[in-house]
Every structure is written in C-alpha cells, then in structure tokens.
Amino acid sequence: MTKKRIALVVGGSRGIGKAIARELAGCGFDIWLTYKSNQEAAQSVRKDIEALKQQCELFSFDVSSHAETKNALADKCDETAPYAVVFNAGITRDNLLMWTTKEEWNDVIATNLNGFYNVMHVVLFSMLKEKQGRIIAISSTAGEVGQAGQVNYSASKAGLIGACKALAREVGKKNIYVNVVSPGFIETDMTKKIPHDKILPLIPLARVGSAEDVASIVGYLCSEKNMYIHGQVIGVNGGLAT
Ligand code: NDP
Questions:
Q1: 177 catalytic residue (yes or no)
Q2: Which of 183, 145, 171, 162 is nearest to 230 (CA)?
Q3: Helix, strand, coil % (nearest 5) of the chain?
Q4: Structural contact between residues 226 and 175, judged by C-beta atoms closer than 8 angstroms
Q5: What is the pTM for the complete model shown?
C-alpha cells in the first residue's frame, strides 16, 4: 500500500488557511494543521477534515519563534516528511510608515517572513530526503505592488516572493515544486474592517474573493496536475493587479 500523503498547513485554523486545509483534505491528504492560539477554531477545522475521512493533527505554536517551531515539528518530520507545506500564517499591523513603531514592524516581519524560514528550516531536510514535494507560500497583492499604510506587511510579503523564487532554484532538482499564491482582497477576519464600497470599484471582477477561491489554486499546485509550474507567483485577485 502506498503511504498516505501529508499536507502541513501553517496557520490553518481560520480564513484562507482553513479553506486550504479542507481543500487538501478533499484531495486526499492527511493534514498537519498549525495555529497560534485559537484552539476552538482549530478543533472545528479538525472535525471538518475528519468528516472528509482524512486524519488531522493539531499543532499550536508561534511561527515567529524558531524554538517553538522546532519543538512542535522537528520530531514529527524525523518520522515522516510532509509532501506539501503551505505557509499561510500572517498578520497585519497597519500604519503609515511615519507612525509605524519598531514593534509593529518587527511583529509583521517576524511572523510573515521569519516564520517561513522557521518552518522551512525545520521541515525541508525531511522533504529533500523524499525527493518530492510541494511548497506554497501565501503572499499578497501588497507584496507585488505595494500598499500604502502597509509598508511592513508589503515588505514581508515581497520578501516571501524573493525567498520562494530563490528556494525554487535550490530544490527544483530534488523534485520539490515551490510556488507563491498571492491573494487580493479575500473575505476573512483579517479584512472584515475594510469597507466593501471602497474596494469593489478597484476589482474588475466586481467582488471580493472567498477563501475557497484561494484554496482551489493551492489544491491544484499541490496536486500532480501541476507538472511544470515552479518558482511562480500566481495572483488570485479578481484582476486587482495584473
Ligand atoms: P486570518 O487572520 O483569518 O488567519 C490567520 C491564520 O494564521 C490563523 O490560523 C492564525 O492562527 C495563524 N497565525 C497568525 N499568526 C500566527 C503566528 N504568529 N504563529 C502561528 N500561526 C499564526 O488570516 P487570513 O486567512 O485573512 O490570511 C491568511 C494569509 O493570507 C495571511 O498570510 C495573509 O497575509 C494572506 N492574505 C490575506 C488576504 C485577505 O484579504 N484576507 C489578502 C492577501 C494575503 P490563530 O487562529 O491561532 O490566530
């Protein structure tokens, strides 16, 4: 019997990560689902995944801490390599740069960009040994075109794009595909305070995206249907940025 494939969804308890975890479970993956502190939300996603007849293991840690990330994942990865890793955890601390505190800057970089290093540094060796796998980072349109009031966030998300493009060159020969998915405005907890009437005129498809809109492309990129997309940034933004 062939081994069941595992997808590690980092930041899978809510919003886009939750939809990705469900999508990948629907594609037949068992899920390692990580979150920071919202245990109730994480347990609810686990139930959804189990209803899809897949296994789901929960891990609570702060991705901005290398030590916490290592404690949570290193032993697991010594036993089994995940086939797919989706780095989705992210936060905003919005402010004009003029008023951005060192803490707001550091928190966003530590979670959104250092978190990617912390996870991949712990997990990658196990994937390299398997000589197969998929790595997807969730960036943002802000990381591609920049967003006023989000210099810290835009920098972290642009950093993820650079990191993935470089990593794609390192691990492509090992049959590990690395791509970035870059959402526009997606309806989640993160964006609930943004008024729709301000955003909609900017979006050619005239609607805000859903978490499932993002999850479906992640599902595709993690599947064997993706045979040659590697080192790319895929926008999921309704035409907001081209
Ligand atoms: P949510 O705020 O709804 O969910 C964030 C997820 O990340 C939660 O699972 C949360 O865990 C986890 N998380 C946050 N900080 C940490 C941390 N320090 N350590 C571990 N886990 C953490 O976000 P969205 O679903 O809206 O966004 C998901 C990703 O997509 C983010 O990277 C975001 O930047 C990006 N994105 C979102 C867009 C949007 O319009 N919503 C647009 C473009 C990009 P917990 O539940 O425990 O807090």
A1: no
A2: 171
A3: 50, 15, 30
A4: no
A5: 0.98
Q: Residue 241 falls within a domain, yes or no?
A: no
Q: Mutation test of ligand 1: which of 44, 45, 73, 88 has the most ligand atoms closer than 8 Å to its C-beta? A: 88
pLDDT band at 122 (very low <50, low <70, confident <90, very high): very high
**Distance (Å, whole) CA 25 – CA 179:** 20
Burial category of 73 from C-beta neighbours within 10 Å (exposed 0-12, middle 13-18, buried 19 and up): buried
Domain count, the chain: 1
Amino acid occupying residue 45: V
Nearest to 13 by CA among 185, 235, 211: 211
Domain that holds residue 146: 6-236
- Judge whether 168 lies within some domain: yes
Summarize pLDDT for 47-59 with one digit per residue, the tens.
999 999 999 999 9
Sole residue written with tokens 């609607």: 207
Residue 242 inside a domain? The answer is no
**Closest by CA position to 125, among listed 63, 81, 76:** 81
Residues 13 and 33: beta-carbon distance below 8 Å: yes
What CATH number should be reported for the domain holding residue 140? Answer: 3.40.50.720
With H, G, I as helix, E, B as strand and everything else as coil, classify residue 132: coil
Residue from 31, 91, 181 to probe ligand 1 pocket by mutation (most atoms less than 8 Å from CB): 91
